[in-house]
Amino acid sequence: MDAIRTENLTKKYNLGWRKGRFLALEKLNLRIPEGEVYGLLGPNGSGKSTTLKCILDLITPTEGAAWIFGVPATKVESRLHVGFLPENPYFYRYLTGGETLEFYGQLCGIRGAALHRRIEELIELVGLAKARDRRLAGYSKGMLQRIGLAQALIHDPRLLLLDEPTAGVDPIGSRDIRDLILRLKQMGKTVLLSSHLLAQVQDVCDRIGVLNLGQMILEGDVDQLISDQRRLSFTVEGLPAGGRGQIEQAAQAAGAKVVGVEHPQTTLETLFLDAVRQDKRGAGEHD
Amino acid sequence: MTERVGFSVARVGTIAANTFTESLRQKVFNILLIFALVVIASASFFAEFAFEEDVAVVASYQLKSIKDTCFGALSVIGMLIAIVGTAMLLPNELENRTIYTILSKPVRRLEFLLGKYLGTVLLTFVSVVLMSVMFLAVLTFKEARLSQPAKAVVEQTESPVEKQKAQEQVAKIRAEAFDPAIVKGILLVFVKLCLLAAITLLVSTFSTSMVFNVAVALLVFFAGHLVGLAKEAWQAQPLLVYLLGIIPNLDLFNVADDIILGNFVPWAHVGKVTGYGLVYLSGVLAAAHFIFSNREI
Predict the structure, then answer these.
(1) Is the model more confident about B46 or about A248?
(2) A286 falls within a domain
(3) How far, in Å, CA of B75 to CA of B95, rounded?
(4) Among A140, A176, B172, B232, which residue carries the largest CB count within 10 Å?
(5) CB-based burial of residue B165 (10 Å sphere; 0-12 exposed, 13-18 middle, 19+ buried)?
(6) A79 lies in which domain range?
(7) Which ipTM was obtained for this model?
(8) How distant is the Cα of B85 from the closest Cα of chain A, in angstroms?
């Protein structure tokens, strides 16, 4: 069954009297099977958030429709198994982390011992055990994002919609969120991830769709889309002097052309994470 | 087969409790409430300035003055708490994006709106109760002080005439201080505040500015107190009077003047005005629900 399906989903915003309408999304046909991690990519204003809002019935599409697990998005029942993390959430400043999760749990009909067990699990999962009884007004951006993830997961939903989940989060927090998405994937959850951080999407998504100016301009399997079928690259270790020339000659003999030779590079993210992890001074729990 | 999600009173209660807790922890509410309690407590001090010699007349004047100040504080500070508390609800939800996290769960928009409204009503109720307790404390304190000379006469005098006169004075002061009609006045102030909160919520369903919400609600508050006079003045023009019916007649809820002057306020009148308030309030909430259900968030 498709976790998400949209048909000709179109949204035009009224810009005001005599200013006409702005086309934010045009005839989007999306199918995300259950268990898939799907990345919705696109520059700012491309229609990513509009898509998520239409799916969650926060806004009404001008044309077309959306379904969640086969239930029309306009029905409240469609949101029974959905968790949503909006972009840059702030939550209730005067509630503590624990109270926040209790509130969202109760909204989902979880009460008593089951709710408290679930809160404990999630607080541990998102690494906020020490900040559980602190009011959200004192939380950093990364901590707010973590509590946002926890509230999205409170009722153990089958589908998660994450709108820029790592926006404003430091690289360590960003990596943690990435790992969490991978764990959710292993648990069989469906994730729709909206982001413009391409490296992160590449790491976690099975398929991606690229939106631009409200239209889907590219969609497909991540590995297939990014692999260049016309070229092959070898990474060689322990190559003796003169070995490079022999390889180039062998390639020419086979009718191929060497177009580039370089030392493999690590990513800046790996470099950063290694440096921080190797720094043993231990300033305490990061946020 | 999809599980059906019906209207849930428990979800409304959860949202109301959350709204109440949030409001209670905000400084603006606490400052307003402390200010109200100080004003009510000081009513006793202001009432001291009476230039009469007759004990009963002075007592009556001072008690009337206290009731006047306390009803004024209840009405004005209560109005500010109800309006400001409600006006910031939806704009804050939108600004903090908490509304997305709530409505993306199996929560109906009606449940959300009612929960928000009832949270403010609870806040207003607690404020009114606290102010009323302070009101009663001031009256108790003042009654004890004012009736002290007469009580001394009752204990010390040998003359049965003087004793009876003093006993009558004590009873009169007690009756005036603890007039049960005060409860009727407070009840109608509370219904009026609930109505104002509903009107503010209606405005905030189509506006995103808290300042605009407060401004419109204050305008309705003042217009509501003048609409009765306007209807009388424009009696000759039925269409105008009919149109003025849209504005709630808030003067109807003001029975404090009658209570202070000692005029009888029948429960039937209180019931009728409460009924008017509840019908009007239900209409306003229905309109708010209609607009909010179709609002793009």
Answers:
(1) A248
(2) no
(3) 30
(4) A176
(5) middle
(6) 2-226
(7) 0.85
(8) 15
